[in-house]
């Protein structure tokens, strides 16, 4: 379960396009943040499940990918193209036979598209030729169709798919996308196969959506919430505002990670079917002389710091590539110890870190804006973030291990990952 948001440059006070995404996956499914240079040579290209012909030259990319996949949940390329994907559930079952995954299509679009329009064309062409399918779950099986927001400094496009068919909507201002079909009758383009399923300009989402699965994922509800928060930001729609939206837990006064009925934009896993949590987050500001990508490279944006990455300033210092097994040298797992400790008393934990978190991020944004030496400025921000997280972890008071179903569900997954024992409420 994920949420993706975009606002055109005309909607923002700085005149730059804003893109944001939370990647929601299983608790121990570490997400890898990587910078890939251009690749040349062609030949065969092994994806998550299948092999396809590579192109002669690719674009340099920043990607955030599940540790066991080739493809990416979200990313950006050197031309300022940004893409994020969403699981979609249709009345037509998703294909179980291995083919392209939605994450493969994100990375392929970034590697091969120098604009949003080109990336869209790449994804549609590959989808029609190779199809989509295969298990996209980590410990639990998970099959789905895919939706995407694809954007650059000039435009943003929503692509929703079912099998090899597709529909496209050109974004007019601000747009959110969650785990539900959302393109109605105002589509910009549609595949012949999908067009044949209705008469004239029909409501595609109403035709496709699986109502039962949407009731579980709360996809339409989160999409509505995301759009309301985008609109609520008014003329103050900045990278900081997008970060705040990705941290949204809804309006329930008694919300906590252990006490939530529905799924929120900042997703927290629990017992039962709610296996997903926000395992990585990204906010991109694209336009002008530079594109700045603000990434957590860690789970739970409410407990994380957004740090800057610029493709021209080198690879982010995230340590060893994380797997689904605990590694204290990896940034993702190092933060996971803090994140999971904060779950013991989320309210107290947020009181401890939230003000400093927001102040540090504001300082990071100012530093990057004023920097002449971008590489040094980026490195300084990442060092400050690491120091802050170390302080927060040291300041946490030990709590008794809870006996709730929520605590037990986390204890099981901690044991599977080999995480050192710690309490979770």
Explain what the structure shows.
The protein has eleven helices and 16 strands. With 425 residues, the chain is of the alpha+beta class. The strands form three sheets. It has an eight-stranded antiparallel β-sheet. Strands 12-1-2-14-15-16 form a six-stranded antiparallel β-sheet. Helix 9 packs antiparallel against helix 10 (374-395). The longest helix is centred in the C-terminal third of the chain and has 25 residues, at 346-370. The mean pLDDT is 94.
Write the layout of secondary structure elements.
Blueprint: E1 3-7, E2 17-26, E3 31-36, E4 44-46, E5 51-53, E6 61-66, E7 74-77, E8 82-88, H1 102-112, H2 116-130, E9 145-151, E10 156-162, E11 165-170, E12 174-177, E13 189-190, H3 192-195, H4 204-208, H5 211-217, H6 219-232, H7 239-246, E14 276-286, E15 292-295, E16 307-309, H8 331-342, H9 346-370, H10 374-395, H11 405-417
Antiparallel strand pairs: 1-2, 1-12, 2-14, 3-6, 4-5, 6-7, 7-8, 8-9, 9-10, 10-11, 11-13, 14-15, 15-16
Helix pairs in contact: 1-2, 9-10
Spatial extent as radius of gyration: 20 Å
Helix content: 25-40%
Q: Could you tell me the number of beta strands?
A: 16
- The helix count comes to 11
Strand content: 15-25%
Average pLDDT works out at 94
Spatial sequence of strands, sheet with the most strands: 3-6-7-8-9-10-11-13
Low-confidence stretches: none
H-E string: EEEEEEEEHHEEEEEHHHHHEEEHHHH
Class by SSE composition: alpha+beta
